[in-house]
Every structure is written in structure tokens, then in C-alpha cells.
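[step 3/7] fold_predict: job queued, chain A
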Amino acid sequence: MALPPRVFYTIIELSARWGCSPADIVGWAAMDQIELVTGVPLVQTESGPVSGLVSIHGADLLVMFRRYSVQTEFQIWRLRPSGSEKWQQITEPVGGLTITAHDIQIMAAEAARFEDEHEMAPAGRRASSALPSFKYDWDAMYVAVIKRIHENGLPETQADFVAEFQEWFMRRSETGEAPDERTIRRRLNPIWRALREAA
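[step 4/7] structure written:
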């Protein structure tokens, strides 16, 4: 019986896979280009109790992952529960939650998205060991975005922009599949911000 696909990778594993420093990955996370996660026991936040899988912000880890050294333990003071867009301050334990470098994970689907987005071919990668490749035609989406903006301008909100192109993917798919909203938002956000600032 085959095992299910792997779910998580550590920063150390992916830095070896991608031929970069762990500090590079944390830097990309600090700029919201890749999402870092960890599992936490029950902690109290300003919005109530949180436990389980949470996102952690790369900017908070920059002092932990330096270019030529990795600090083994560090305190984090904020987190984002799975499925939430809001960062929450940790109120208990007082002084933040202690994590180690090995507690920080990247989900396999997120790593695959990052590789797909940057057209990466990690060092030593073999077809049999590759992360699942994404099947979405991002180049065609960008063409559709340009056409939509040229003909009709921007939608009223970014949420409408994301929803419109999630539906665009669904219409093009025989099975109705589409990327999740977060992935589409990351693709569209630079376009949205640049055009809104120019308006």
C-alpha cells in the first residue's frame, strides 16, 4: 500500500532542495512571497484561544535566520490561525511562544506553488521525487487580466478581482477546478496595487 504524499517540508530541507540559504526563504516569507506554518499548543491571543496549524510571519524570524547562522530558539508574538487573514497577538504565554528552527514548516502544496510561480528546477530534482506540479495556466490568466482591464477597467474591489478570475479558471477546467483564493490574490495583488496607485 502506497503512503500518502508528503504534507510538510522544513526550511532546512527546502533550502537544500532549492540551493539557497534558509535566510533567503525567510526573507521571501517576510515579503509575503511564501507562507510559513507551525503547529502550536493552546495559546491565548487578543481574539481568543488558538491551537493547531497556524501561519507565522517571516519578518518576525529574520533575527532567527541570519545569513551565516541560525538561532536555535526564538519567541514569536503573533500568529495567524488557519483560514484567517488576520494576524493575532499572543497574550499567553506572556513573552511569546518559544519555537525552534525545526518547528517552522512549509506545506508541500505551498512549496509546489512557489516552484511553479518561479519556474524553478531544484538542484538534484528527479521527476520521481518532484513536488506535485500545478496545472493552472497562469500565462493565459495574465493575458485575460490585460484584456479585461483594457476593455472594462478594474473591478470595484480586489475581492471581486480575485473571484472573477477564480471563476475564469473554473470555466476553463473540465472538472471545475481552480486555484484557491489566496494563490490567485498573490498573483493579482501587484497588478491591483500598481493600477490603483496610478489611478
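[step 5/7] annotate
The radius of gyration is 19 Å.
The chain has two domains: 8-129, 138-198.
exit 0
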